[in-house]
Amino acid sequence: MKVIKYPQRDAWPELIRRPAIDHRQLSVVVENILSDVQRDGDRALSTYTLKFDGIALDDFLVAESEYLNADIYVSQELKDALDIAKANIEKFHVMDVTPRSVIETSPGVTCWKRKLPIEKVGLYVPAGSAPLFSTVLMLAIPARLAGCSEIVMCSPSGVDGFVNPVTLYAARLCGVTSVFKIGGAQAIAAMAFGTETVPQVHKIFGPGNQYVTEAKLQVMRTGTAIDMPAGPSEVAVLADDTCLASFVAADLLSQAEHGTDSQVLLVTDSDDVISDVLSEIERQIDLLPRREIALSALANSKAILVESIQTGLDLLNEYAAEHLILAVADADAIAEQVTNAGSVFIGNFSCESAGDYASGTNHTLPTNGAARAYSGVSVESFTKTITYQTVSREGISDLGPVIETMAAAEGLDAHRNAVSIRRASETR
Amino acid sequence: MKVIKYPQRDAWPELIRRPAIDHRQLSVVVENILSDVQRDGDRALSTYTLKFDGIALDDFLVAESEYLNADIYVSQELKDALDIAKANIEKFHVMDVTPRSVIETSPGVTCWKRKLPIEKVGLYVPAGSAPLFSTVLMLAIPARLAGCSEIVMCSPSGVDGFVNPVTLYAARLCGVTSVFKIGGAQAIAAMAFGTETVPQVHKIFGPGNQYVTEAKLQVMRTGTAIDMPAGPSEVAVLADDTCLASFVAADLLSQAEHGTDSQVLLVTDSDDVISDVLSEIERQIDLLPRREIALSALANSKAILVESIQTGLDLLNEYAAEHLILAVADADAIAEQVTNAGSVFIGNFSCESAGDYASGTNHTLPTNGAARAYSGVSVESFTKTITYQTVSREGISDLGPVIETMAAAEGLDAHRNAVSIRRASETR
Q1: Is the pLDDT of residue B428 over 50?
Q2: Of A140, B296, B416, B425, which has the maximum CB count within 10 A?
Q3: Which residues of B are catalytic?
């Protein structure tokens, strides 16, 4: 980790800058994949799956026998763990389900809104270096709670032509409608446009590499919604001398093992915390199977010494971390002052791993500073809101003149006339 | 209007298809504007404002004197109308403000979420053929209710170098922080990147032409959020023989006068309704100042005769109209069956104009079929949600094994270790 001591405030923007991705070349590659899939459907999917994943596949839909094999493969211990995680995630996410509220804004003018499920949704679950079955729980559970009628999932198969069995088991457990063995930008294209076998969906969710993210951004143009633009995963820890260096080191490493591009940040008001955490990292890292990945992520990571925890909090509010761990004395009070973060972990025993898997909160969170404007995935992400109004004869008589005055001032006479013709009809 | 009778269900996709925009050329033009503004700031804004709007401007910030002039210009009648509209919009939108709810998902594991304002937001208010000051109300009121600390607005000035006075009056009335005389893609660029005078914002809202929409989609790549991709405005009316043809005609015309690309759709189970509405349109259209625009929009519009109101509803659920008017006998019951729409107007006296200006609901709504996955603007659009968790020593002891099992199964040992190290510390 790079250690930076007492940076000036005008150096903050540089300090909190994430690595920029040059999307131009990426953009052309992805544009071609999208148009090929849109034009050639399944045939293009076969071509790209062979090209990028080295697998010859004609049939992408996961068969019933594969779910049965998955069920045999997954240990009872893991099944029990998944059940508990699922129950906790459901308990937390069901809080989103809100009753409709109706208001009479003006006599005879009644307005309300209703959250309805997005009918068809697509979940992308990457495979790559680790089988991320926890992502299935985090996307499919809120989709089900929202009431989505079709939940399509794409995940690349291994070289054996099979999707990871735990991923499949989790998909079935959480009510995914169908799983397709497709990865990368071509998976996003398949769900956005639909092919002979893959159904077209209205919104696409899930993490992925920069090709997947670029594809998600591009399909927005043709009307498919997305959860958020994803970037490399991040953790920031705000620590004072009440923290436990071994815990902080473990949390930083759990982020660093995700990928070489993971963003790891330690902010503290104590020089001792920095040196203790750094030596703990050295001790713990040697025991990790993913040591090389973690080492490489840490090379780009920063430990920042600040004058006070308040200054550290200001810096982190500007940074807007995906995960923010508060390992400080008055963590509860500090948590109230957080203005930008994806998910906040309060106190020494609240590790990011808890939220990653089983505490109940969602782990699909805004990265790359997006937490300034985006939220993590929730049941709401799988719904859209429709507004309704009933205006009675009395209502239009009463509010009509206001509408007529405004429409006239905007020079929209037909808008005014739609009111006038109704008001005039009263007198009949 | 084109009249289509009893279309087969397999002809629906073609029938509800909106005109496609070829974004490729557009994309390059906008990309250049964005990179110029990002590099040259205010200087680029001056160049583009001269080039596209024909106005030489060095200072884009609206001065205090211009607000004073606006205050003198706007009639008392219009001020009163704006006050009533504002009060209704506030009454409806304040319903979004939700209290925090806390849940203990597992013993010692407490999770909650909190909606916080997006700190800096940008509103784009087009000028063009009509001064759309109502859009100021629809964007600034929820921004204020959400608690955004900086509300920046861009709107192009007229050839006289001044922003429409009613737009300015509304901006001040609704608590906009600062207004800049900038239009088009360059306005989106200015708010996304910030310039010497325009503050950078985290999320950009508001309608606009295809350059504005393309610019909004492009700035998402560099981390700015947007409300939704906007397209031409739309209304669909579902009518049976209980409708009043003159009302329906007035509603269709109020949409048609927006622009030549407005989408207008009449769906009915009655041949008489089609002929009555068409003759009412002929009668009413001649009285409209914006007759030519309306005529041209109607040329691309469709009146569709269906077997039953239920079939019509199915068709309209696939269409996902921005505005959906239900002028049918059992409108309340039909409204409950709507699955895709931006805003629904129930019964003969509920005209779209009411929602456009003053009933309380928002008029910034998903167009172009986006209502399948997007919602209209609300207070929620100006907030993001942060999730929080506190895990106690007891909590990690209890839930820890579940997390460890799942982390191990994903091959993420450092994730597991972050739990194990905490569980082990108990025994000390």
Answers
A1: no
A2: A140
A3: 322-323
